[in-house]
Amino acid sequence: MKNIFGTVDNTYNEIREKSLMQWLEEMEQHPDVAVHGGVKLAREYVEYLKEEIKSLEQENELKLQYLKKLKEKNRQEK
Fold first, then answer.
1. Phi/psi at 3 (nearest 5 deg)?
2. Where are the alpha helices (DSSP H) in the chain?
3. How many angstroms separate the CA atoms of 31 and 27, rounded?
4. For 24-64, what is each residue's pLDDT tens digit?
5. CA proximity to 46, closest of 71, 70, 23, 29
6. Which of 3, 27, 69, 70 is in Cβ range 3.0-4.6 Å of 9 for a Cys bridge?
7. Residue 3 near residue 9, CB atoms below 8 Å
């Protein structure tokens, strides 16, 4: 999310991620095998989602660049 200065501010997301990781660490100590066994799966899924977000952001950037080029091309033709 961009702030008023145009820079990216991930403070909220970083706090959420730290909170989630802390909670997962606590769940690793849970006596129920299904609970502490699911922690690894949850961590893997979080990493998958991060990679997916990164991929989508790159894809979006490419599309924006392409649209800017099309817009410039259309202006030059007029």
1. -95, -175
2. 11-28, 33-77
3. 9
4. 999 999 888 888 889 999 999 999 999 999 999 999 999 99
5. 23
6. 3
7. yes
What is the residue type of 36?
A: H
Categorize the per-residue pLDDT at 1 as very low, low, confident or very high, splitting at 50, 70 and 90.
Answer: low
Residue type, 78: K
Question: What is the DSSP secondary structure assignment for residue 4, as one 8-state letter?
Answer: T
Average pLDDT of span 2-8: 67
The pLDDT score that the predictor gives to residue 48 is: 97
CA distances from 34 to 16, 20, 42, 52, 67 (A): 24, 18, 12, 27, 48
